[in-house]
């Protein structure tokens, strides 16, 4: 039986199935598709050359190992999330809890700020990759300022519009990106020379680095902890993220084998973005596109932008939760979009930070390599350890508030 539509309410079929909902909730399917695009874009762009240099054909095993480790970490964090509220904001109580509870809350806030700075730093590097991709493949250096400003404004606008509308865009783009990608990979597989897949010698250190790099890219999915409160079925959030990891790992393995079978290991190790150069070798039949490289660039552009927007969201939520003394809004509430709201100013501040950092990466020689090493060697391990520390702080606080009872 249909509900009657009242003014200001969305059209519904019944009480549980809405045509359009603006309740600041996202479905498990939307999480799966968003995570797939986010993980696939950066990993398939940067990993093939690194894996070829470090481990050769064993890079396939490194991808499988990194993906399995990311799934294991996801299961651990899901258990932690089930026992602890990972809300990014919590009101500090000045009475009744004692100095110990207040100190624990402050420690949680410090951890949130550290994590927020790290996530915003990774977002800045992804923005740098986006600017490089557009500058080198579509435009030229003259348009670099406009490229950087436009991408930053688009990311900040996504924060202003809220989580739900941004995720809907990824859901719509999902098949529009993966179907052309599948066609390109099928055509490219014809040019593969299987003899190039022969086993090559690799060192234990090189294989370990390959595994860690793969693990780091796929472990970014563990940021789903900030998606979980917004999921319409939180108990299915981890399963959806796990499906996204499996899909991203599978696509990376296919792409790596194709690139290895076309370029060979030594050449592949010297290429910066080999998957984009694939269109120089693979030509679509019929010459439908004069700029076939633009098609490949477009696929990775939207995947990278999805990751950039999500990292910007995570960083903003963490920093706002770490510095704000007000209770966080409920997940079902849509953020206010007025210029006077904290949401507006935090989004703007984070956008300005990633813009400045990306500009430095673009114009300071040697800085991108140093920045990337810092992410892998410093930011990555810290981000992976912070949820455990955050959980211990939350558990200690709950124990004190409940008189030691769980």
What would you say this structure looks like, in words?
With 406 residues, the chain is mainly α. 70% of the residues lie in helices and 0% in strands. It is built from 11 helices and no strands. The chain has helices spanning 28-54, 59-83, 98-137, 144-161, 163-189, 204-219, 237-270, 274-281, 292-323, 342-363, 367-401. Helix 3 runs antiparallel to helix 11 (367-401) and helix 4 (144-161) crosses helix 9 (292-323). The two termini are 44 Å apart. The model is unreliable at 1-22, 90-97 and 327-333 (pLDDT under 50).
Q: Layout of SSEs?
A:
Elements: H1 28-54, H2 59-83, H3 98-137, H4 144-161, H5 163-189, H6 204-219, H7 237-270, H8 274-281, H9 292-323, H10 342-363, H11 367-401
Helix pairs in contact: 1-5, 1-6, 1-7, 1-9, 2-6, 2-7, 3-4, 3-9, 3-10, 3-11, 4-9, 4-10, 5-9, 7-8, 8-9, 9-10
């Amino acid at each position: 039986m249909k509900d009657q539509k009242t003014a200001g309410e969305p059209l519904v079929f019944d009480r549980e199935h809405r045509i359009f909902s603006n309740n600041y909730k996202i479905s498990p399917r939307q999480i799966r598709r968003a995570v797939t695009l986010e993980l696939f874009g950066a990993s398939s762009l940067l990993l093939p050359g690194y894996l070829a240099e470090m481990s050769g054909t064993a890079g396939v095993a490194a991808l499988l190992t990194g993906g399995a480790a990311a799934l294991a970490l996801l299961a651990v964090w899901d258990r932690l999330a089930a026992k602890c509220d990972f809300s990014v904001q919590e009101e500090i109580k000045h009475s009744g809890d004692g100095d110990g509870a207040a100190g624990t809350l402050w420690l949680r806030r410090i951890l949130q700020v550290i994590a927020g700075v790290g996530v915003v730093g990774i977002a800045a590097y992804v923005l740098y990759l986006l600017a490089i991709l557009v500058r080198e493949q579509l435009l030229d250096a003259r348009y670099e300022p406009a490229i950087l400003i436009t991408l930053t404004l688009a990311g900040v606008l996504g924060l202003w519009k809220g989580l739900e509308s941004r995720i809907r865009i990824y859901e719509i783009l999902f098949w529009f990106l993966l179907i052309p990608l599948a066609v390109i990979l099928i055509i490219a597989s014809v040019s593969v020379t299987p003899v190039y897949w022969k086993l090559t010698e690799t060192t234990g250190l090189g294989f370990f680095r390959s595994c860690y790099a793969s693990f780091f890219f796929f472990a970014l999915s563990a940021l789903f902890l900030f998606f979980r409160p917004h999921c319409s079925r939180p108990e299915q959030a981890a399963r959806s993220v796990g499906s996204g990891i499996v899909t991203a790992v599978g696509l990376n393995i296919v792409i790596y084998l194709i690139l290895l079978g076309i370029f060979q290991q030594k050449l592949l190790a010297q290429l910066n973005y080999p998957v984009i150069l694939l269109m120089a070798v693979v030509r679509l039949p019929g010459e439908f596109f004069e700029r076939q490289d633009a098609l490949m660039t477009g696929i990775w552009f939207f995947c990278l932008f999805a990751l950039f927007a999500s990292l910007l969201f995570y960083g903003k939520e963490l920093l706002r939760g770490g510095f704000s003394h007000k209770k966080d809004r409920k997940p079902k509430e849509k953020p206010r979009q007025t210029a006077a709201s904290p949401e507006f100013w935090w989004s703007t501040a984070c956008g300005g930070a990633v813009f400045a950092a990306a500009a430095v990466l673009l114009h300071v020689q040697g800085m991108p390599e140093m920045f990337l090493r810092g992410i892998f060697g410093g930011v990555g391990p810290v981000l992976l350890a912070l949820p455990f520390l955050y959980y211990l702080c939350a558990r200690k606080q709950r124990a004190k508030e409940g008189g030691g009872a769980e």
